[in-house]
Amino acid sequence: MIKLTGKGNARELAEQFTQEMEKTGLSCQLVSGLTETHGDTTILVQVYEKYYMRASNRVSLTFTLISNGETSNAYVVSSGGGQGPIFRMSWGAEEDFALSAAKILSKLGFKEVDA
User: Fold this and answer.
1) How many domains does the chain have?
2) Spatial separation of the C-alpha atoms in residues 61 and 16, rounded to whole Å
3) Cys-Cys crosslink for 110: which of 14, 56, 84, 105, Cβ 3.0 to 4.6 Å?
4) What pLDDT is stored for residue 103 in this prediction?
5) Looking at residue 91, what is its pLDDT?
6) Quick one: pLDDT at residue 105?
7) What averages of pLDDT result for each successive group of 10 residues across the chain (115 residues)?
8) DSSP string computed for 2-43
């Protein structure tokens, strides 16, 4: 998991994030998402998938954004890049997908913090 913190409107950040994520590859797509607002806090969850040839499968990425209007915390978790039913051999696809998301968030003014 990668945790980042930044500022900005949650919905606008999510729109920009989605646009940039979909540019990371033809097979990258937003699968599902939800947004909940409770008082001043907005919680946004988006799930992406992307096909990686080196892993011969689709890798998922879950992007969670929690914003109170001033500060936004973003969490990036990627999974599914392993091969094999018993010995989960990973080709690094999960890490690559998560780092792509972190780079996008960095461009949007976020800084990585300890999770």
Assistant:
1) 1
2) 16
3) 105
4) 97
5) 67
6) 98
7) 94 94 92 95 96 81 94 94 61 87 97 89
8) EEEEE-S-HHHHHHHHHHHHHTT-TT-EEEEEEEEEETTEEE
- Considering only the C-alpha atoms of the chain, give the largest distance between any 2 of them, rounded to a whole number of Å: 46
**Rounded to whole angstroms, how far apart are CA atoms 42 and 39?**
8
Query: Which distant-in-sequence residues (6+ apart) come within 8 Å of 49 by Cβ?
Result: 27, 28, 29, 31, 58, 59, 60, 61
Question: What is the domain extent for residue 18?
Answer: 2-113
- pLDDT at 47 (0 to 100): 98
CA 89 to chain centre: 22
Going by C-alpha positions, the residue among 91, 89, 115, 90 that lies closest to residue 102 is 115
